[in-house]
């Protein structure tokens, strides 16, 4: 049996090695390392895949969030609502820009922002909502967009974990996660569902003005070379990364299907097991399983993590400390927060290996080992 990893990028590379190597060597031969043709080709191809008007590539998913927030004319102290149960980048960027992160609860089943909690958190200072499509399932975007419209608030979808995910509106319309809010952001970090071989990211929007502004912000605020209209940053997707992503984008749906197949195997093995809750998939979204995350009740989570490790099976706790308990936000009055669902999940979630290369033998070994521990 091949060693089990959380993400097996080596095996995945072996399947696409010939194409990737050729594309990367072409970049080196062209010496167009910055803003080469593959960058433009990739932005156009991703735009077609997502059915969104503008894709602006940048250096990573954290920059993507920053570029998006910089484009929205927010003032210091403006409030940015985001779930507490997410990767730190979402709210870190808000604090960096002198905005005030406001942490809200997530739904216990979907792990995404709780829309009732969201409504209650809105104040006259709220200017932005950042739903995070956690683990690969879209947040309840129809409701979020209604709330945002009522209060005239921007929505930035943090789509780093859910690229390719489909959101279904109540009228049956289907749109890609990340293209429903005013702006969507994503990451091409190697382990993401569409990962490069280094850092990368992008923002997308259907709004021409926001697109123009974000394009400038990512490039030192310049429209015309050496004429700087606004303060920006330097955030680019490498041509080499774009060349890799151009090979991987056409495979994304196939990669998602492989993840869903592994998830089905897990779901089957764990259904009706007392104390294990398998991922819930809401009617309005499909799931692209960036992570496969169980909730354990009455099972020693850290003990299971340890037991699996001893058998050579990695498992991860995403995320052990929620935003509203992070030291970096100490100046934002964290003691005011009571987020019982977030705290509850933090104690009980465990993510199993999830990637495109899991085979039957590995999946059987993982599930058997989990059940061994549970039935001990
Ligand atoms: C990975 C991730 C990011 C940041 O992406 P980087 O490319 O690592 O900067 C932001 N938000 C979420 C939810 C993520 O999972």
From TrEMBL:
CDD domains recorded: AHBA_syn (cd00616)
Active-site residue list:
192 (proton acceptor)
What InterPro entries does this protein map onto? DegT/StrS_aminotransferase, PyrdxlP-dep_Trfase, PyrdxlP-dep_Trfase_major, PyrdxlP-dep_Trfase_small
Q: Where in this protein does the record say N6-(pyridoxal phosphate)lysine is found?
A: 192
- Please provide, alphabetically and separated by semicolons, the GO molecular function terms listed in this UniProt record: pyridoxal phosphate binding; transaminase activity
GO biological process, alphabetically ordered:
polysaccharide biosynthetic process
Q: Which UniProt keywords apply?
A: Aminotransferase, Pyridoxal phosphate, Transferase
User: What's the family?
Assistant: Belongs to the DegT/DnrJ/EryC1 family.
What is the protein's name according to its record?
A: DegT/DnrJ/EryC1/StrS family aminotransferase
Q: What is the lineage of its organism?
A: Bacteria, Pseudomonadati, Bacteroidota, Chitinophagia, Chitinophagales
């Amino acid at each position: 049996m091949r060693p089990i990893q959380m993400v097996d990028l080596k095996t995945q590379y072996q399947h696409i090695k010939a194409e990737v190597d050729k594309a990367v060597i072409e970049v080196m031969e062209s010496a167009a390392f910055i803003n080469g043709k593959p960058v433009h080709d990739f932005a156009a191809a991703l735009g077609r895949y997502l059915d969104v008007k503008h894709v602006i590539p940048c250096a990573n998913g954290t920059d993507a969030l920053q570029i998006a927030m910089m484009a929205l004319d927010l003032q210091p102290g403006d409030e940015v609502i985001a779930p507490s149960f997410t990767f730190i980048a979402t709210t870190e960027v808000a604090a960096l820009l002198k905005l005030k992160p406001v942490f809200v609860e997530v739904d216990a089943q979907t792990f995404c922002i709780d829309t009732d909690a969201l409504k209650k958190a809105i104040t006259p200072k709220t200017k932005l909502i950042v739903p995070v499509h956690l683990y690969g399932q879209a947040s309840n975007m129809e409701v979020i967009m209604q709330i945002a419209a009522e209060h005239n608030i921007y929505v930035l979808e943090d789509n780093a974990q859910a690229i390719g995910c489909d959101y279904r509106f109540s009228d049956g319309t289907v749109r890609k996660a990340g293209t429903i809010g005013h702006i969507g952001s994503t990451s091409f970090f190697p382990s993401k569902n569409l990962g490069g071989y280094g850092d990368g990211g992008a923002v997308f929007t259907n709004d021409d003005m926001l697109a123009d502004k974000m394009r400038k912000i990512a490039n030192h605020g310049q429209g015309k070379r050496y004429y700087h209209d606004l303060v920006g940053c330097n955030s680019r997707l490498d041509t080499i990364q774009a060349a890799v992503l151009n090979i991987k984008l056409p495979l994304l749906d196939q990669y998602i299907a492989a993840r869903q197949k592994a998830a089905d195997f897990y779901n089957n093995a764990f259904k009706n097991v007392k104390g294990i809750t398998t991922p819930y998939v809401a009617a309005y979204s499909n799931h692209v399983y960036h992570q496969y995350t169980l909730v354990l009740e009455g099972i020693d989570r850290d003990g299971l993590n340890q037991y699996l490790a001893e058998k050579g099976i990695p498992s991860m706790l995403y995320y052990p400390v929620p935003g509203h308990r992070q030291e970096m936000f100490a100046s934002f009055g964290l003691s005011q927060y009571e987020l019982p669902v977030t705290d509850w999940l933090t104690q009980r979630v465990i993510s199993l290996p999830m990637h495109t290369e899991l085979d039957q033998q590995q999946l059987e070994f993982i599930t058997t080992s989990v059940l061994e521990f549970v039935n001990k």
